[in-house]
Amino acid sequence: MSDHKTPHPEEQRLLAGDPETTGHSWDGIKEFNNPLPRWWLWTFYATIVWGIAYTVMYPAWPLINGATPGILGFSTRANVAADIERFDAMNADIRTRLTEVELAAITLDAHPDLYNYAIQGGAAVFATWCSQCHGAGAAGVQAAGYPNLLDDDWLWGGTVDEIHFTISHGIRNADDPDARYSEMPAFGDLLGDADIAAVVQYLRNVSGQAADVTLAAAGEAVYLENCAACHLDDGAGDRFLGAPNLTDAIWLYGGSEAAIEHSVRFARFGVMPPWSAQASSAGRLSEDQLRAVSIYVHSLGGGE
User: Fold this and answer.
1) How many CB atoms are located within 10 Å of the residue 32 CB?
2) What is the distance between the alpha carbons of residues 171 and 163, in angstroms, rounded to a whole number?
3) Do residues 185 and 175 lie in contact, with contact meaning Cβ atoms separated by under 8 Å?
4) pTM: predicted TM-score of the whole model, two decimal places
5) C-alpha R_g of the chain
6) Which among 56, 94, 85, 52 is positioned nearest to 72, based on CA atoms?
7) Under 8 Å between Cβ of 162 and 154
8) How many CA atoms lie within 13 A of 250 on its CB side?
9) Buried b (16+ CB within 10 A) or exposed e, 264-276
10) Nearest to 207 by CA among 230, 223, 185, 184
């Protein structure tokens, strides 16, 4: 077997004055060994020098607990912290006023500057800490039991002071002894399937939805015996006990037969953390932030 390579039939012919080749050839095209342009080489060397200088002067190389700081001591984190401190100092007076003026008195007519600051600051707090559950537009997520904050259906009250208390202490959490608290029993352990089916139809009927009227009539007795103590005889509920109105079209977890049956059979137990810094170690908001977001939520259209 011969190692001789057959020349390409159209192999490039070198001319006088052509530079030497690298020895590589493809489809008869030979690769010249041209030197790089001088300007390109100097630019390349300059980038190497600049890169070395940058890593010496600025934070660059990651370490186990941080990065090399650089001899200039530059820090974007420190710059941001300084900006935050500067703006906090600028807003210190209005933030203090926000905590001192009676919450219900902070209105556009009575305190326009304070109210506008609260709306803007509250919107930022809401976007940062509340929108993950209640949605960016505060319409809630029914499938997950996150309430709509735009309507006028409020458990535990919808005045700005009541909203402030709910945000501060949360709902059914184990961190704050003052948390709003209500607990519905799981009637799947107390009622038979027939009674549960009947009371589901009764609830759909009193809320104006399509229902089996025969089962609904039987479900009324089941309701009055087991549910009326909290939701009242007419189903209008007791918001201050956390018992929702069952006669309107607003359902926290949905008003379909399946959703109502699940609520009756297994109960619901939504939890909201306390946001007050004084309530527990889980609290994240200062009092002025709590008041700002309370005023913002109240202003969305559903506040009382």
Assistant:
1) 13
2) 12
3) no
4) 0.76
5) 35
6) 56
7) yes
8) 17
9) bbeeeeeebbbbb
10) 223
User: What's the residue count for the chain?
Assistant: 304
Cα separation, 202 vs 288, in Å, equals 45
What is the token pair recorded at 210?
A: 């399509």
| pLDDT score at 290 | 96
**What tokens does 36 get?**
């790089």
Q: pLDDT of 143-202, one tens digit each?
A: 889 999 998 889 999 999 999 999 999 999 988 999 999 999 999 999 999 999 999 999
Structure tokens, 255: 């008003």
- Residue 300, helix vs strand vs coil: coil
Where do the DSSP E strands lie in the chain? 21-26, 29-32
Nearest C-alpha neighbor of 294 from the set 277, 280, 275? 275
List, in order of start, the domains of the chain with CATH numbers: 95-179+272-299 (1.10.760.10), 187-266 (1.10.760.10)
